[in-house]
Design a protein that fits this description.
This protein is α+β, with helices and mostly antiparallel strands. The protein contains 9 helices and 10 strands. It has helices at 2-12, 17-49, 52-61, 103-144, 158-203, 209-233, 246-257, 276-293, 348-358; strands at 68-71, 78-85, 88-95, 242-245, 262-266, 271-274, 297-304, 307-314, 362-367, 373-380.
C-alpha cells in the first residue's frame, strides 16, 4: 500500500529540480496563509456574536465557582460579578484591565504550530532533493582519488539524473583511456623483454669480453627503463583503500634503506585513509631520487590542523626554481647530460605526483635549508 502511494506521488510530482524547489517553498507559505486567514476570520465571527471577554470569564469561572452571573456591558471600565453566597448574593466589581483575552494566545498558537510543522516538512523534502547531489559529489570525490567505485545509479530530479548519467559516461571514458594507455605501455615493455633476453643469451657466447661488458651495460639500462615503464603503468592499479598508520609506514621505509645519513623526525600515531602500497612507492621514489644526488637526507612527518605534511630534504645540487613545475611531468629530465639520467626515463617523480594527487593531496618542491631540494607532500587528514 505504502509502496503504491509512494509511486503515485512520484508520478504526480514535478520531475525538474526548479519546480520541486518552488513547490517546497510555495506550499508551506500557502498553507500557512490559509491557516492564518481561517483563524483570523473565525475569531472575527466569534467576536461578532460573543464577546471575547465574556468567553474568557466563562471559561475561567465555571470550573471554580458555582452559581454566578456577570455583566461586562453595563459599565465601561468595570465588570459586575455576582456570586451566590449562602442565602444571599456577593457582588464584586473589578476593572476590565485585569482580564486577559485569550484570542491573542490562540491566534499566536495557530500561527506558530503550523509554521513549525511546515518548516519541518519542507526540510525533510529539501533533504531528499539534496541527497542525490551529495551522493554524486561523494562518487566524484572518490573517483578523483583513484578509488574503484561501483556503477553510479543516478536518482532525484531530472537535472540531477542527467548530471549523474554524464558523470557515469565520463568515468567509463576515463577508465577506458587509462586502461588503453596502461595496456599499450605494458605491451610494449613486455614485447621488448623478449629481444633483450635473446641479446643476453648471445652475449654469453661472445669472446670479446670488453664488447660483451659494454653491451651488457646497455642491456641493463634498457631493462631498468622497462621496469620504470611497467611501474608507471601499474600506478593506477586498484589497491584497496584502508586506514593505516602512516608514521609506522615511514619508519619501515627509512629502516629498509639502512642508511645512516637519513635522519627522521616522524610524529607517532598519525593515521591516514588511503592505499599504503602506493604511498610506499611514492616515498620510495622520492628517497631513491634523493639518495642518487645527495649525501644527507632528512625525512619529516607532522600533522597541522586537517593536513598531514611529509617533507624530504637533501643536501644535493638541487633543482633550479624554474624547473619545479616541470620535474613531475612524465619523461622529463632536468639535466639530460648527467650519466645517471641515461638509465632513467624520467617517470619517478611523475609517478609520485600521480599517487599523491589520487589521494586528494598535493606535492610541491622548494629550496631546502640543507642546500638541496625539498619535496613537500600534503595529504588530507
Amino acid at each position: 500500500m505504502s509502496f503504491g502511494l509512494s509511486k503515485f506521488l512520484k508520478n504526480i510530482l514535478p520531475k525538474r529540480l526548479f519546480y520541486r524547489g518552488l513547490l517546497i517553498v510555495a506550499v508551506p507559505i500557502v498553507i500557512l496563509q490559509i491557516t492564518i486567514s481561517l483563524v483570523f476570520f473565525d475569531s472575527l465571527w466569534i467576536e461578532r456574536w460573543f464577546s471575547p471577554m465574556d468567553r474568557t470569564l466563562r471559561r475561567e469561572l465555571k470550573p471554580k465557582i458555582g452559581e454566578h452571573w456577570f455583566n461586562t456591558i453595563s459599565y465601561k471600565e468595570v465588570v459586575d460579578l455576582r456570586i451566590k453566597f449562602r442565602d444571599g448574593v456577593l457582588q464584586i466589581f473589578f476593572p476590565k484591565e485585569r482580564i486577559q483575552v485569550s484570542s491573542i494566545r490562540i491566534f499566536a498558537f495557530w500561527i506558530t504550530i503550523p509554521a513549525i510543522l511546515m518548516i519541518a516538512v519542507a526540510i525533510i523534502f529539501l533533504k531528499n532533493q539534496t541527497r542525490p547531489i551529495t551522493k554524486l559529489a561523494q562518487a566524484s570525490e572518490r573517483f578523483g582519488r583513484g578509488e574503484d567505485i561501483e556503477e553510479f545509479r543516478p536518482s532525484g530530479a531530472l537535472e540531477i539524473r542527467k548530471a549523474g548519467l554524464e558523470f557515469e559516461k565520463m568515468r567509463k571514458r576515463i577508465l577506458r583511456h587509462l586502461n588503453q594507455r596502461s595496456e599499450m605501455l605494458s605491451g610494449i615493455s613486455h614485447d621488448l623483454r623478449t629481444p633483450l633476453t635473446r641479446i643476453k643469451l648471445q652475449l654469453a657466447v661472445i669472446k670479446d669480453k670488453d664488447l660483451s661488458e659494454k653491451i651488457s651495460k646497455d642491456v641493463d639500462e634498457m631493462e631498468k627503463m622497462l621496469n620504470e615503464y611497467l611501474q608507471f603503468t601499474s600506478t593506477g592499479a586498484k589497491d584497496k583503500t584502508e586506514t593505516f598508520d602512516i608514521s609506522n609506514l615511514l619508519n619501515e621505509i627509512v629502516l629498509k634503506y639502512e642508511n645512516k645519513n637519513i635522519e627522521k623526525k616522524i610524529k607517532e600515531k598519525i593515521y591516514f585513509n588511503g592505499r599504503p602500497n602506493l604511498i610506499k612507492r611514492c616515498i620510495g621514489n622520492l628517497l631513491d631520487n634523493a639518495i642518487k644526488y645527495a649525501e644527507k637526507i632528512s625525512v619529516n612527518l607532522e600533522k597541522k590542523n586537517s593536513t598531514i605534511i611529509i617533507s624530504i630534504d637533501d643536501d644535493g645540487p638541487g633543482v633550479d626554481k624554474s624547473e619545479f613545475q616541470n620535474i613531475t611531468k612524465p619523461f622529463y629530465k632536468v639535466d639530460k647530460s648527467r650519466s645517471d639520467s641515461k638509465s632513467s626515463v624520467g617517470l619517478g617523480l611523475s609517478i609520485s605526483s600521480d599517487i599523491i594527487k589520487s589521494h586528494g593531496g598535493d606535492i610541491k618542491f622548494n629550496k631546502s635549508k640543507m642546500g638541496g631540494l625539498k619535496a613537500i607532500i600534503s595529504l588530507p587528514y
